[in-house]
Amino acid sequence: DAKTTQPPSMDCAEGRAANLPCNHSTISGNEYVYWYRQIHSQGPQYIIHGLKNNETNEMASLIITEDRKSSTLILPHATLRDTAVYYCIVMGKLIFGQGTELSVKP
Amino acid sequence: GAVVSQHPSRVICKSGTSVKIECRSLDFQATTMFWYRQFPKQSLMLMATSNEGSKATYEQGVEKDKFLINHASLTLSTLTVTSAHPEDSSFYICSAISGGPSGTEQYFGPGTRLTVT
Nearest-CA neighbor of A36 among B38, B6, B69? Predict the structure, then answer.
């Protein structure tokens, strides 16, 4: 199963875009990239997923590089409620890495 | 999105007793469910994969006789922690797979906080 690497923490100012990177250099051609977030003491919440095209939904945008070895989750206008741990996962057995703890500050 | 529920949300039990946690997919059928546990300030750790109608597949280091998993129907999987000890205190989370046209989607339950005294 492909592993992912994310920075352990990031800060973002409220109202600004939050760009969360993820490296998945060993991803296979048919494996999707998924993003989840977890707010303290809750189950992970699905955000978005993609294969090779960029994706957008009401929560976020997902930019996947052409070689698919990395991706970026974009929260266009971060709010305080977006403070959470964000996990990038490659679909397979859905092994969770350590994720990025995003702190949105006023 | 699809909804997965867990019951109970919190449970406190005495050392040596067994605890059962239920995971239900409320609006879809899930042939595969997963069980994770999470210790404070750590990531989710996959414990086992539960397939409807067959035996669960456990990850390395997870004792199958201690963590009994039953996937009796397409909407229900149960995890029983047998002879619980304080070190089993953790946040247990289940998830269920829903097949979709753009790849499978995994939905998580809200988690069960187990405290063993």
Answer: B38
